[in-house]
């Protein structure tokens, strides 16, 4: 239970808000897509701030997950801690539950728990973001790949990765509707 709370608290620290405040630019929740994440910060404020956001959102949950590993928690319990990180990022209490889509945070959690699955998903995300130019397509495809890759590369974590994927998909429902209408913003 304490590690779950610690996971939620670490996840709720939104990298985009910190980066944008330090840079003296507007809160990304007030502009563009309204999402405090990499894609919106990229469109609004450029690569430098977007990469800083991506880095912070990726690494913020890692210390608590390393602690779960050191304590010898079973994979399902490590997954619950990781899910707490993602829930903190998606629904942070002090930001009135207005958080991000959990893609970068899920990547960071998977780097610790299932590094080879994380690598496969990252490569697919980069390829699709480059070729299609839409973060939502890249994120949804990568989330879909994660459970399939975990069957082969991290079978003890399949259930955990399925839970992460479900959360990312739920957080992208609006993006899915915009993709269907052809209104999803491009990364370019």
Layout of helices and strands:
Blueprint: H1 2-11, H2 15-23, H3 38-45, H4 47-59, H5 62-70, H6 75-90, H7 103-113, H8 115-132, H9 135-153, H10 158-171, H11 173-181
Helix pairs in contact: 1-5, 1-6, 2-4, 3-4, 4-7, 5-6, 5-7, 6-7, 6-10, 7-8, 8-9, 9-10
The rounded distance between the terminal residues' Cα atoms is: 42 Å
Anisotropy-based shape? globular
Mean pLDDT score: 91
Low-confidence stretches: none
Radius of gyration: 16 Å
Percent in helix: over 70%
Q: Number of domains in the coordinates?
A: 1
Largest sheet geometry: none
Q: Hey, roughly how much beta strand do the residues contain? A: under 5%
Number of strands: 0
Order of helices and strands: HHHHHHHHHHH
What's the helix count? 11
Name the structural class.
mainly alpha
Give a short summary of the structure.
This protein has 188 residues and is an all-alpha fold. Helices cover 72% and strands 0% of the residues. It is built from eleven helices and no strands.
């Amino acid at each position: 239970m304490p590690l779950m709370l610690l996971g939620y608290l670490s996840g709720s620290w939104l990298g985009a808000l910190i980066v944008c405040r330090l840079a003296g630019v507007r809160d990304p929740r007030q502009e563009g897509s309204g999402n405090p994440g990499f894609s919106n910060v990229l469109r609004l404020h450029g690569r430098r701030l977007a990469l800083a956001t991506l880095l912070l959102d990726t690494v913020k949950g890692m210390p608590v997950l390393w602690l779960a590993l050191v304590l010898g928690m079973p994979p399902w319990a490590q997954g619950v801690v990781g899910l707490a990180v993602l829930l903190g990022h998606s629904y942070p209490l002090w930001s009135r539950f207005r958080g991000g889509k959990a893609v970068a945070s899920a990547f960071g959690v998977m780097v610790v728990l299932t590094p080879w699955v994380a690598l496969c998903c990252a490569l697919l995300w980069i390829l699709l973001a480059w070729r299609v130019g839409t973060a939502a397509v890249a994120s949804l495809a990568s989330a879909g790949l994660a459970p399939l890759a975990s069957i082969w590369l991290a079978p003890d974590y399949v259930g955990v990765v399925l839970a992460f994927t479900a959360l990312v998909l739920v957080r992208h429902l609006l993006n899915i509707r915009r993709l269907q209408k052809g209104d999803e913003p491009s990364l370019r």
